[in-house]
Amino acid sequence: MIYCGIDWAERHHDVALVDDTGQLLAKRRIGDDAAGYRILLDLLAEHGDTEDAPIPVAIETSRGLLVAVLRQGQRRVFAINPMAAARYRDRHGVSRKKSDPGDALVLANILRTDMAMHRPLPQDSGLARAIAVLARAQQDATWNRQTMANQLRSLLREFYPAALDAVASWQNGLCRPEARELLRLAPTPSQAAKLSLAQLRSALKRAGRQRSLDAEAQRLREILRGDYAHQPPLVEEALGKQTLALLGQLEAACTAADDLAKAVEETFPHHPDAEVITSFPGLGTQLGARILAEIGDDRDRFADARGLKAYAGSAPITRASGKKHHVGRRMVKNDRLNHAGYLWAFSALNASPGAKVHYGRRREKGDWHAQAQRHLFNRMIGQLYHCIHAGELFDEHVAFPSLLAEAA
Q1: What is the pTM of this model?
Q2: From its phi and psi, is residue 282 left (phi > 0), alpha (psi between -120 and 50) or beta?
Q3: Residues 346-378, buried b or exposed e (16+ Cβ, 10 A)?
């Protein structure tokens, strides 16, 4: 059997092929372009690569055009963690020498000796991979939006507390269109104190608000004309310009998050697993798409529900040595799936009576909030694994039979 290792870089890639005995059969440097990819495929074909029996490939990334080219057909591509590859390099020498061709050879030998210990990239469908791109981008845009809102809030605390008081009662605060329109109209407290009711009403209307315009404009006017401390005029003017700069970045982040959310809403319902995923309490289109993006639709990716729970970070991990025995939370996990699971468990508390009872029982046993939520997520993601493989929708009475009976 032939094994291939590729050390990738931005402009070129180093390729190494070895056989069962570890003998180096070929090595080549290719460019990061279509011509280089054709050279790589021809090199693999010269050494017995066929459509029915493709040569497995080890590489230190799971993204990019090179990986997309290699994943065509039935080829198994192994994304090796760079830290693991570095440990394998130390097995064969203590001089700590390193080179790109040498790293490609190390990756090929990883497959030769320990291929069973590594997991190939899942064979997800094209639709699932497209949903993963959109869902992850929307998640990144949401995090970026919150980061910009936090920076703007920190700045307003220095010279413009009236603006924070004005948006305190609004859901999403500074991320709301009304808040952004208000700051654009009056980036300093001196300018805000001069706004009339008509100007405030027009600003709310431009932001898309339709109800209680007069009452909201009156409330904003009273707050903005309240008694607050002020920075010196020149300093306040400079801080106002900084506010407008941050506001522009926040506007872009909000627009990106909203546009990507619409794209997810258009794409996710077309997936066959969407109905099963959204049948679970606490999972809507956006959160369900994030769950699907991380677990994929390759039914052979996880051997059982325990593998999925470990991948999500919800299953505890045991460290035992001699008389020491510790059970704690898992640190190495899929952070995106773990974050989505925390939101899922939090939303399920109000959407599922059984989930709420389960959470309460964990709290009574001494779990703190995050532990109880993680335990609930661990149970529900196991149920999701079963429902997806069985093609069944979530059933509250099947998921929490004893808990619902006790609650009744």
Answers
A1: 0.86
A2: left
A3: ebbbeebbbbbbbbeebeeeebeeeebbbbbbb
CA distance 283 to 382: 15
Q: What is the pLDDT of residues 91-117, one digit of tens each?
A: 777 777 788 898 999 999 999 999 988
Q: Would you say 145 and 175 are in contact if contact means Cβ atoms under 8 Å apart?
A: yes
99, with CB counted inside 10 A (0-12, 13-18, 19+), is exposed
3-state helix, strand, coil in the chain (%, to 5): 60, 10, 30
280: DSSP letter:
S
Which residue in 362, 365, 393, 390 sits closest to 378, CA to CA?
362
Instruction: Report how far residue 176's alpha carbon sits from residue 106's, in angstroms, rounded to the nearest whole number.
Output: 52
CA pair distance 133, 376, nearest whole angstrom: 27
Q: What is the pLDDT of residues 8-61, one digit of tens each?
A: 998 899 999 999 998 999 999 999 999 999 999 999 999 988 988 999 999 999
SS3 215: helix
Residue type, 208: G
**8 A C-beta contact, residue 154 and residue 221:** no
List all residues 6 or more positions away from 243 whose beta carbon is below 8 Å from its beta carbon. 152, 155, 156, 160, 183, 187, 188
